[in-house]
Specification:
Distance between the termini: 36 Å
Order of helices and strands: EEHEHEEEEEEHHEHEEEEHEEEE
CATH class: Alpha Beta
Structural class: alpha+beta
Mean pLDDT: 93
Strand order of the largest sheet: 1-2-3-16-8-18-5-4
Strand content: 25-35%
Shape: globular
Low-confidence stretches: 165-169
Bound molecules: succinic acid
CATH architecture: 4-Layer Sandwich
C-alpha cells in the first residue's frame, strides 16, 4: 500500500495519509506504522470509519488490550472500548465526559501502565475539546540539572487521581471496590522506553501523588517544578479533532490532556471510543 507519513511542525506528532484502518494492514505497512509511532510519539489517521470490532482489531496488532477500571464507562458488548463521551442516557453519562483533566499518561497508576491509547472521534464540537500532547523525551533531555539530580533514581507513587488522596476527582468516580483494584503503585520518575531505549519523564500531575521515601514537604515542590517544566508549550502539540480522526499516542514517552473548558455547556457534544494497549513494567 502507498501511504505517506507527514511529521507535524511541533516536536511530536505525524499524520499518516492513505491508510484505511478498517482494512487489515499488510505486515510491511504495519512495520512502517509501528516505526512512525515510535519516531513521532503520536500518529494521526484522518477520515476513518471504524466499527468497534475494526478499532479493536487494529489496536490488537500492537499488543493485548487493557480494560479501564471504570467498567461502567465501557461500550456495551465491547469491554475493551472505553467510551469518552458527554452523551447522557436517562440523565446519566454513558462514558467518561472528563477523562484527562490534567497532563497524564493512561493507566500510569497500574503495575503495567499502558503502552499506547487509540482515541477514535465519532462526534466532535465545533470548538473546544482539543487534546494536548507533550513530548517527555524532550522534557527529560532539557531538565534543569538540579531537578534531574534530585529525582534521578527515584520512584514516584501513582493513584488514579491526585485528588483521590481524599476522593476521586472525576464526574464518574471510582467505587470503593474499583479503588481497591488500583492501590498505589511506584514507578521510576524517569523511565527507559522498552523499544527505543530513550529516557523520558514519566511522572504526571493527574496521577503522581508523591515520591517514595520522601516527605511530602520535600517531594511536592520538586513535583510541581517537574510538572511545570513538562507542560511548556515548546514540548507540546494540540490536536483539533475532526469526526473520523483516530489518534494513537505512546503513553510511555508522551503525556496528554483534554481541554474540558466547555464541559457543562449543553451545546458541547463530544463522543469518542478509546482502546488501550497494555504495556509492561516501567524500568
Ligand atoms: C484520555 O485522557 O484518554 C482522553 C483524552 C481526551 O478526551 O481528549
Amino acid at each position: 500500500m502507498t501511504f505517506a507519513i507527514k511529521p507535524f511542525a511541533a516536536c511530536l506528532g505525524a499524520e499518516i495519509i492513505g491508510i484505511d484502518l478498517a482494512e487489515p494492514l499488510p505486515a510491511d505497512d504495519f512495520a512502517r506504522v509501528h516505526r512512525a509511532h515510535l519516531d513521532h510519539l503520536i500518529i494521526v489517521f484522518r477520515n476513518q470509519s471504524l466499527t468497534p470490532e475494526q478499532q479493536i482489531a487494529f489496536s490488537r496488532r500492537f499488543g493485548p488490550l487493557d480494560r479501564h477500571p471504570s467498567d461502567q464507562a465501557s461500550l456495551d458488548g465491547h469491554p475493551e472500548i472505553l467510551v469518552v463521551s458527554t452523551r447522557k442516557e436517562n440523565g446519566k453519562y454513558i462514558g467518561l465526559p472528563d477523562a484527562g483533566p490534567k497532563w497524564h499518561s493512561d493507566l500510569s497508576y497500574v503495575k503495567t501502565p499502558a503502552l499506547g491509547s487509540m482515541l477514535y472521534a465519532l462526534e466532535v464540537p465545533d470548538h473546544g475539546g482539543n487534546t494536548g500532547f507533550a513530548n517527555m523525551y524532550d522534557a527529560y533531555e532539557t531538565l534543569p540539572g538540579d531537578l534531574r539530580a534530585a529525582l534521578d533514581g527515584r520512584r514516584a507513587i501513582f493513584l488514579p487521581g491526585r485528588a483521590q488522596k481524599g476522593g476521586a476527582d472525576f464526574k464518574i468516580g471510582f467505587s470503593a471496590e474499583q479503588k481497591e483494584r488500583v492501590p498505589p503503585v511506584a514507578h521510576p520518575v524517569f523511565r527507559t522506553h522498552p523499544e527505543t531505549r530513550r529516557k523520558s519523564v514519566f511522572a504526571n500531575p493527574q496521577h503522581t501523588i508523591g515520591i517514595e521515601g520522601m516527605a511530602e514537604s520535600e517531594s511536592e515542590p520538586l513535583l510541581q517544578r517537574l510538572f511545570e517544566h513538562c507542560a511548556q508549550p515548546r514540548f507540546t502539540y494540540r490536536h483539533k479533532w475532526r469526526p473520523g480522526d483516530m489518534v494513537f499516542w505512546d503513553n510511555r514517552c508522551a503525556l496528554h490532556i483534554a481541554d474540558l473548558s466547555r464541559i457543562g455547556d449543553p451545546a458541547y457534544r463530544r463522543h469518542m471510543h478509546r482502546t488501550t494497549i497494555m504495556g509492561d513494567v516501567p524500568f
